[in-house]
# Entry
Amino acid sequence: MRISKYVILIAVLILFLQPATAQDIEYISTQPWDHSPITVFIDEVNVPERYSPTYKEQVDIALEYWERGGNGKLFYTPVFEVVDDPDADIYIRWIENLEEVEGADEGVAGYAAPTFVGDKFLHVDIVLEVGNYQGFSWVQYGDANMQELAKHELGHALGLGHSSDQSDIMFPTYEQRDNLNPILLSRTLPYIAAISVVIISIIVYHTISWRVMKKRREEIEEEVFKR
Ligand SMILES: [Zn+2]
# Structure
């Protein structure tokens, strides 16, 4: 009897968590750009003190990565054109430390902020930090780190949201929290709601079983003391 109740509970849990695992990636938009090539401006002038000139190369590699298909989750093949024009479609810049400069939450290493016209991107600002404080010591991001970060943020600029697959570049390793846009939040809300339902049902289940036990105990006590 008790075992079957747990089986039902686990089944309900699996059923609720299914949509989160079945679709491993979210989309901000599957076709965010209405033109090609997508122009990119990389700001190498207004750079922070700890900027490394090798970072630009990492962005170039990241752009190539997506042009070659990236993580395979795009419904189109992007073509980029790096231009010397700040009004480009995608503006990429570096800052010293997000927490310090922009007051971002801890763990956020970069962000991509799109502005929309309907479901199309008008412009995307990408901000990458060059390092982070771990305790009181400054840790500068290496090129490999920067490359991963650039790939991840560019993925957002191409319409991809986050992936639940840890091996995917869109898995939120670098920015645990997103200052991305409210669309992503509205997509994660159903999961939050589902998890809440599961937690509430566990609490309800335990409350009920506690009451049943209490009632039984009272019955037994009554029996015992009557005799
Ligand atoms: Zn992200």
Summary: The domain at 29-180 is CATH 3.40.390.10 (Collagenase (Catalytic Domain)). Residues 152, 156, 162, 172, 175, 178 surround zinc ion (CB under 6 Å). The chain has two domains: 1-24+181-227, 29-180.
